[in-house]
From TrEMBL, chain A:
Its main location: membrane. The gene is phnE_2. It is a multi-pass membrane protein. This is Phosphonate ABC transporter permease protein. Belongs to the binding-protein-dependent transport system permease family. The chain crosses the membrane at residues 32-53, 84-114, 145-171, 200-219, 225-245, 257-278. It comes from Secundilactobacillus silagincola. Residues 91-275 form the ABC transmembrane type-1 domain. It is found in: Cell membrane. Keywords: Cell membrane, Membrane, Transmembrane, Transmembrane helix, Transport.
UniProtKB/TrEMBL annotation, chain B:
It comes from Secundilactobacillus silagincola. InterPro entries: AAA+_ATPase, ABC_transporter-like_ATP-bd, ABC_transporter-like_CS, ABC_transpr_PhnC, MetN_ABC_transporter-like, P-loop_NTPase. This is Phosphonate ABC transporter ATP-binding protein. Pfam families: ABC_tran. Residues 2-246 form the ABC transporter domain.
C-alpha cells in the first residue's frame, strides 16, 4: 500500500459554513492582493490628477493650439533649414544604426541563449545568465547609451554600444525561451544517436527555432530603429533623431518636423510589410 | 550480443524502479518486453544506451560494459545503437532525407555536423533506406507533412543509417493506426530476419507480440517475471505478467 504521507494530496479547504453556491476556485490571497493594489492605485491616480494641472491652464486654448500644431506638421510639411537629401542621409544613418546593433546583438544573443537554455545548459548557468540579462533589460536603452557616453563621449559610438547592450539582453531572453519550448525528447534522440553537441545545435535546435529567431530579431530591429531616433536626439548620436531635435527644439519649425515624421512613418510602413511577409513565409 | 545482468535503478533513492533485471538479446531475433504501465519497460530500454543512468548491474554490448565507458566512448557506442520512439522525435522542419542522414552524423566531424556535409555514398545509402521503408517519393518532403506511420518509417530509416547492431524501440506503434502498425512491425521483423539486427521492442499489445516476437520478456514491478520463447507465452503467463501486485509501490495508477 502507498503510505498516506506519499500520496499526492490535493489541497482542500474546509468550508466554514454551509455554502450557497459552488465556487469555481478557492478564494486565495493573491487575488485579494491584486484587487487591493488596483484600488490603491486608482485612488492615487484620482487624488493626484488635479494637482498635475497648473492653475493657469485653459483646456480650450490648449486644445486649439495643439490642433494648430498638428495641422502645421501634417498638412503643411515643407523644409526650411535642411534639404531632403540631407534628411534622407540622416534617415539612412538611423536605419544603419538600428541594423548594426540588431546584427551584433542577435549574433551575441544566440550564443548567450545556447548557454542559458534549460535544454542544454546546467542550471547555474541558466539562472546566472538569465538574471544578469534581466538586470540589463530593466534599465532602458537610452539610459545605457548615456552610461556608455561617459566612456565614449556623446555620439554614435556610445549609441552603438548602448543599444547593442540592451538588444543582447532582450534577444538572449526570447531566444532562450524559444529553445526551451523544444521537446527534451528531440535532444535526447540526437544524443542517443551519438551526435556531438555542435551537430545537435545545428541539426535540431536551429531548424526548430529559425521562425521565431527571425521574427524576434525583426521585432528587435523595429525597437532599435525607434531607439536610434530617440538616442539621436538625446545623446547626439546623429541621424534623423538629431534633425528632429534641431527642428523642434532649436528652430521651432513644425513644418520641417512634419516632413521627418512622414519619412519615419513611410519607413515604418516598409518594415511592417517586410515583417508580414516574413511571418507568412516562415509559418 | 546484448546481455543485461542484475540491472537496478531507483529514481528517488527509495522506491525501486528496477530490481535485479537480467536477460539477453540474440542477433537476428525480435525480443519483446511486455508488462503493465509503470513496470519499468522504458527504464530498461533507456538504460541500454544510458539515456538513463542506472544504479547497479552490467550491460554487456559486444562484450564491453556500456556502464563503464567514458563520455567519448559512450558516444561511439551509441552510434551503433539505433533507437525509435513512440512520438518519432524527428526534426520536423527538415526533410525526410535530412533526418535519415542524421543517423550517420555520430561518426562524422564537428564541421560535417555544422555544415551538413555528407558524402555521395552516404546520400545514396539514405535514399536506399527510404526506398526500403517505402518512402522513396517522400525523400524531399518536410517531415511535419508526413503521417504518423510515415514518420515512424523515417525514424526506422534514420536508425538503420547508423548501421546498428541493435535497434531499441520504445512503444513504436502506440500512436499508430492498425494499418501503419502492421507496416512498421513488418519492417522491424524483416530487419531481424534478413539483416541479422537485434530488435528489442517495448510493447503494450500482447497480440502483436504473439505474431512478431521470437522471445518475450515479461516485466512486473521492476522485475523479470517471464523470460522465454514466444511459444511458451501461455494465457496464465500473460495473466501473471499483468497481475496487480498487492504490495506494488511502483505502479502509477492507484485505485481509490
Amino acid at each position: 500500500m502507498i503510505k498516506p504521507e506519499n500520496q499526492i494530496s490535493i489541497p482542500t479547504r474546509q468550508p466554514a459554513g454551509p455554502r450557497l453556491s459552488i465556487p469555481l476556485r478557492f478564494r486565495d490571497r493573491r487575488r485579494v492582493t491584486i484587487l487591493m493594489t488596483l484600488i490603491v492605485l486608482a485612488y492615487i491616480t484620482l487624488a493626484t490628477l488635479p494637482t498635475m494641472i497648473p492653475s493657469h491652464f485653459k483646456l480650450g486654448t490648449a486644445l486649439t493650439s495643439f490642433a494648430e500644431n498638428i495641422k502645421i506638421m501634417f498638412w503643411q510639411p515643407h523644409l526650411a533649414n535642411t534639404t531632403f537629401i540631407t534628411l534622407l542621409g540622416a534617415l539612412g544613418q538611423s536605419i544603419l544604426l538600428a541594423f548594426l546593433t540588431t546584427l551584433i546583438g542577435s549574433v551575441l544573443a544566440f550564443f548567450f541563449a545556447l548557454a542559458s537554455t534549460r535544454r542544454l545548459a546546467p542550471t547555474y548557468l541558466v539562472l546566472g545568465i538569465q538574471s544578469l540579462m534581466a538586470v540589463i533589460r530593466a534599465i532602458p536603452t537610452v539610459l545605457w547609451v548615456l552610461i556608455y557616453s561617459v566612456v565614449f563621449g556623446l555620439g554614435a559610438n556610445a549609441a552603438v554600444v548602448g543599444i547593442t547592450f540592451h538588444s543582447v539582453a532582450y534577444l538572449t531572453k526570447v531566444y532562450a525561451d524559444s529553445m526551451d519550448e523544444l521537446s527534451p525528447g528531440i535532444i535526447e534522440t540526437m544524443q542517443a544517436m551519438g551526435l556531438k553537441k555542435s551537430a545537435i545545435i545545428r541539426q535540431a535546435i536551429i531548424p526548430y527555432m529559425m521562425p521565431s529567431y527571425l521574427s524576434w530579431t525583426f521585432i528587435r530591429f523595429e525597437i532599435n530603429f525607434a531607439d536610434a531616433i530617440a538616442v539621436g536626439a538625446a545623446a547626439g548620436a546623429g541621424g534623423i533623431g538629431y534633425q528632429l531635435f534641431m527642428s523642434s527644439s532649436f528652430y521651432f519649425n513644425f513644418h520641417e518636423v512634419g516632413v521627418m515624421v512622414y519619412m519615419i512613418l513611410a519607413f515604418a510602413l516598409v518594415l511592417e510589410i517586410i515583417s508580414y511577409r516574413l511571418r507568412t513565409a516562415t509559418n | 550480443m546484448l546481455t543485461v545482468k542484475h540491472l537496478a535503478k531507483s529514481y528517488d533513492g527509495e522506491k525501486k524502479s528496477l530490481t535485479d533485471v537480467s536477460f539477453s538479446v540474440q542477433p537476428g531475433e525480435v525480443t519483446v518486453i511486455i508488462g503493465p504501465s509503470g513496470a519499468g519497460k522504458t527504464t530498461i530500454l533507456r538504460s541500454i544506451n544510458q539515456l538513463i543512468r542506472d544504479d547497479d548491474g552490467e550491460i554487456l554490448f559486444d562484450n564491453t560494459d556500456i556502464r563503464q565507458l567514458n563520455r567519448a566512448q559512450l558516444r561511439q557506442a551509441r552510434c551503433r545503437i539505433g533507437m525509435i520512439f513512440q512520438n518519432y522525435n524527428l526534426i520536423e522542419p527538415l526533410t525526410a532525407i535530412e533526418n535519415v542522414l542524421h543517423g550517420c552524423l555520430g561518426t562524422k566531424s564537428n564541421l560535417a555536423g555544422i555544415f551538413s556535409i555528407y558524402r555521395n555514398r552516404e546520400k545514396e545509402e539514405a535514399l536506399k533506406l527510404l526506398e526500403k521503408v517505402g518512402l522513396a517519393e517522400f525523400a524531399y518532403q518536410q517531415c511535419r507533412n508526413l503521417s504518423g506511420g510515415q514518420k515512424q518509417r523515417v525514424g526506422i530509416a534514420r536508425a538503420l543509417m547508423q548501421q546498428p547492431k541493435i535497434i531499441l524501440c520504445d512503444e513504436p506503434i502506440a500512436s499508430l493506426d492498425p494499418k501503419s502498425t502492421i507496416t512498421v512491425m513488418d519492417i522491424l521483423r524483416d530487419l531481424a530476419t534478413n539483416d541479422g539486427i537485434s530488435v528489442l521492442i517495448n510493447l503494450h499489445q500482447v497480440d502483436i507480440a504473439r505474431s512478431y516476437a521470437d522471445h518475450v520478456i515479461g516485466i512486473n514491478n521492476g522485475q523479470v517475471v517471464f523470460d522465454d520463447r514466444i511459444q511458451a507465452l501461455s494465457d496464465t503467463a500473460i495473466a501473471s505478467i499483468y497481475q496487480k501486485d498487492a504490495n506494488s509501490e511502483g505502479s502509477v495508477v492507484h485505485e481509490f
